[in-house]
Request: fold
Amino acid sequence: MASPERRIRVPKTVTRGEVFEVRTLARHVMESGVRFSTDNIVVIPRHILQEVQGFYNGRQVFRADWFSSVATNPYLSFRVKAVESGEIKVIWISDYNVRTSATAMIEVVEA
Reply:
């Protein structure tokens, strides 16, 4: 189940062989490590989501490396071909190797 900080959306049902979209949203500050605090004395430490991985029934179908230029609360979508019913899981990995995830189920139907 998705935490409030991570969201994933997929269609409830898709036709076998259809390409469907996985949409994700991660609440994250994405600090680049080059901004100063409000008093201009201290550099705010870097804290970004470095990697995003997408899985379809345990098999990796998507991977992206992110860098400091990605916006706060990043949105991401990718497309997958429907083969069988099951779980779509997205994992976000931060600079500090903190892993968070969200999952959704899809049902594949015959045409």
